[in-house]
Here is the input.
Amino acid sequence: MTFASSKLSQKFAKPLTIGNVILKSRVLQSPLSGVTDLVFRRLVRRYAPDSMLYTEMISATDLHHMKALPKLMEIDRHETPISIQLFDCRPDFLAEAAQKAAAEGADTVDINMGCPVNKITKKGGGSSLLRQPELAAQIVRSVVAAVDIPVTVKTRIGWDDTEITILDFAKRMEDAGAKMITVHARTRSQGYTGTAKWEWIRQVKEVLTIPVIANGDIFSVDAAIACLEQTGADGVMCSRGTLGYPFLVGEVDHFIKTGEYLPKPTAIECLQVAKEHLQGLWEYKGMRGIRQSRKHMAWYAKGFVGAAALRDRLFRVESVQDGIDCLDQEIAQLADYQANHQGVNYQGTFGAIAPEDMAEMIAMQ
Ligand SMILES: Cc1cc2nc3c(=O)[nH]c(=O)nc-3n(C[C@H](O)[C@H](O)[C@H](O)COP(=O)(O)O)c2cc1C
Here is the structure.
């Protein structure tokens, strides 16, 4: 049986409905702090025109005290479907922030109840809400009452292995009015280590009626399909697999829609996109964008002869021209190498970053 004739493909031929928002894709790009800014989202959007994208998470308390909206919250009117993600523990501030998100043109507002970072959990936000389910439900109720757009929640399976509370928690979120839940199938104490426990997503799916999105360890088309098959989830969210690889969401979406794999981008194509990313960050954020670009550039420079040396150079760039020169040189060398080595094909050496390389790369942030 081909994928196109499978049950999964028939189920996925129907749109994903989040409250009154209808999506033509069941593959989503996760919110990633320090990554999913307007520049990165534009690249993802090019390859995944129908997928829901997310902003980086934004503190509702910070928003409350700011006179102007931060760049983090800026969305392009053309980038729909787009969700603005908020975090906090104050229902009133979150309601106010959600109204600002809706006014900016967000299609949905997502509440982060999964971030494991101490700075966030100590203040009662992110995954610490898993330990305060009544407050979490109150937050959802308060935000739902404040806006007309659907309110969604992104969370983890529990605090640690002794406290896996997702089944009760997810039901409470649905009862409070959440229109979709994304489950990152790790505990808070796992951080980003170990494997995602997809079996919990299957159980969440069994107790909820709202769409359940599976998240965790989706580094390839095959992983996405395996996850969807094993969990019965309504959609899948790609995350670290998109770092330095804005093609992944589009690749998964294409496979789900056609049953065919898209050809992998060549190393040269990846570096061309890296150049656009760098240029975009420079235009959008100036020198801060250049500093932020270093980690992105290192993520792109992977999977070909000379990648390690390129990463090293890119990690030290001081100006946009520096970076463009480095990338142009590498592109010329790769083209030259290919011309002189008939039959050598870089396709397939590229792909989402392997999980084992990720810890080091995240540490670069
Ligand atoms: C650098 C980084 C930043 C992240 N920022 C956010 C964020 O702002 N909001 C959020 O809900 N999750 C955030 N996450 C979690 C991811 O969205 C996702 O849930 C997690 O990486 C699991 O998926 P994966 O195993 O496929 O990477 C972040 C993860 C990483 C690695």
Notes: The first strand starts at residue 16 and ends at 18. The chain has 15 helices and eleven strands. Residues 30-35, 56-57, 85, 112, 114-115, 154, 184, 192, 196, 215-218, 239-241, 362 surround flavin mononucleotide (CB under 6 Å). The chain has two domains: 3-258, 267-349.
